[in-house]
DNA sequence: CGACGCTTTGATTAGAATCAACTCGAGTGG
DNA sequence: CCACTCGAGTTGATTCTAATCAAAGCGTCG
């Protein structure tokens, strides 16, 4: 039962020891305040791929943060179309949708095995109202979520397929680097279909986009393994510039 | 100077007398608490069409609510493309972008002459931390903003032009009805270009969409004057149903 | 009255969706 | 150990939607 022991150790480690501390809700909070926050955090056993933290219509009892593993949040329209609202890497808060009416409007699905911290929202709000630094930090985290949504929006609107894909890879790389992983060589936690539903494209278009980037020498891709070979070029493509340095302005080939 | 007198009366009316009270930040807040909130509200003189409440990069000193008139919030990407993030009718909070980093990332532009209330954010947060009911309401309003953004997102992704336009008109009608105006006969506060940049379409496509809806007898439109003739059909179109009742499935005409 | 901005309409084109077939790899079970 | 299946991903052919380019109509405001 080697793994079980490891799990228990993992489960008992508090926010103060967590490697994500600086990126997560506790960022910038003093020792004493951190202790109070730490006390309401429930560290759950691992969730399996495909498991849901909550579903649309559930009362917003808690918010969650992945310690490791990734999640997607999905909104299903009345006609059954699934729209991926966001991907959530470790340290990024999950479940603040539903702040408006107290009920979740999306579902949060684990993309692989994951470990999460659960923070009962009532208690979180109660502590926040006593600790200005936590209130401020909570607002900041919410605001960052709004910013991510807006960036997502800008990515979807009036940008073409290849730009969206480049922007997606570029952004994902940055977020991975933020949490201390390699931003240039990683395994995508989500399927092509998830990416397509996030970017508002057909999954074939996503696949073609990846292939195109590979042909152009910008990335190397094999299934979910991605390596970014030319980060500068990727960034350029992401911001809507047409061609690459090898052929700055060619006629239609 | 008849108008001036009216303006002054207008300026002095507090939240307690405001017709928007139930829709605005004060909703559900008790008399005593309302008074505290009321004291920090600055009621400004009218702003002219095209004037800005704030610009990208400004520190987020205040949030705003229109008492009358409408605003748009616009994000400008590095390549100069303008994306309309949202439209704001009376009672809807403006300026919560920038919660993440303390600086605005969008600009808020008046679509016509408008009257706004300004709430200095520091003071608002300070009062909120003393009044749980206001804190709760503030979170709720923020949450509703997030929900609107998500709806906007869903509207943009994988819906076709005509659906987006129908959804836009349908949603606008509902919001107008909410603030006590007619939801079926109104004047659009924004240009076709603004709508296009909100919906992620070319302005010609928006114009064609309006014409198409008019041809189908769903709306009557003349410039910015819109009348919704068949609300049920509009709702149906908005939710992705193909044809209307008169011609359930016709070949290309 | 004329000019300008906003809107509508028309013709053409480009980009992505859709439909369809095929490849690859991981399990599964014979 | 190998054939088989199943799901994920890739690639190709075709179609269709909406962008783009272009021009004309309309209303308003000097």
UniProtKB/TrEMBL annotation, chains A, B:
Gene3D superfamilies per UniProt: Jelly Rolls, Winged helix-like DNA-binding domain superfamily/Winged helix DNA-binding domain
Pfam assignment, any one: HTH_Crp_2
InterPro entries listed in its UniProt record: cNMP-bd_dom, cNMP-bd_dom_sf, Env_Response_Regulators, HTH_CRP, RmlC-like_jellyroll, Tscrpt_reg_HTH_Crp-type_CS, WH-like_DNA-bd_sf, WH_DNA-bd_sf
Keyword Transcription carried by entry: yes
Subcellular localization: Cytoplasm
Molecular-function annotations in GO: catalytic activity; DNA binding; DNA-binding transcription factor activity
Chief location category: cytoplasm
Domain Cyclic nucleotide-binding, residue spans: 25-109
SMART domains given in the database record: cNMP, HTH_CRP
GO cellular component, one term: cytosol
Key words of the record: Activator, Allosteric enzyme, c-di-GMP, DNA-binding, Repressor, Transcription, Transcription regulation, Virulence
Domain HTH crp-type: 159-232
Subunit field text: Homodimer.
PANTHER family: CRP FAMILY TRANSCRIPTIONAL REGULATORY PROTEIN, FUMARATE AND NITRATE REDUCTION REGULATORY PROTEIN
Name the record gives this protein: CRP-like protein Clp
Species in which this protein is naturally found: Lysobacter arseniciresistens ZS79
């Amino acid at each position: 039962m080697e793994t079980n022991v490891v799990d228990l150790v993992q489960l008992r480690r508090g926010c103060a020891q967590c490697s994500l501390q600086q990126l997560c809700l506790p960022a910038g909070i003093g020792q004493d305040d951190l202790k109070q926050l730490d006390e309401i955090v429930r560290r759950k056993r691992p969730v399996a791929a495909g498991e849901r933290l909550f579903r649309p219509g559930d009362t917003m009892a808690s918010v969650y943060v992945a310690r490791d593993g990734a999640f997607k949040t999905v909104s299903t329209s009345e006609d059954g179309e699934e729209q991926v609202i966001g991907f959530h890497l470790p340290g990024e808060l999950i479940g603040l949708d539903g702040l408006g009416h107290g009920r979740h409007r999306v579902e949060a699905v684990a993309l692989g095995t994951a470990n999460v911290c659960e923070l009962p929202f009532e208690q979180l709000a109660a502590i926040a109202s006593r600790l200005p630094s936590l209130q401020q930090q909570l607002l900041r985290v919410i605001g960052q979520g709004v910013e991510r949504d807006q960036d997502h929006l800008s990515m979807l609107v009036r940008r073409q397929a290849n730009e969206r894909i480049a922007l997606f890879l570029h952004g994902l790389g940055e977020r991975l680097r933020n949490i201390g992983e390699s931003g240039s060589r990683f395994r995508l936690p989500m399927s092509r279909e998830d990416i397509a539903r996030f970017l508002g494209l057909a999954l074939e278009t996503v696949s073609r986009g990846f292939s195109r980037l590979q042909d152009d020498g910008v990335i190397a891709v094999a299934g979910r393994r991605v390596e970014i070979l030319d980060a500068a070029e990727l960034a350029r493509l992401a911001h809507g510039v047409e061609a690459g340095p090898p052929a700055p302005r060619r006629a239609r080939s």
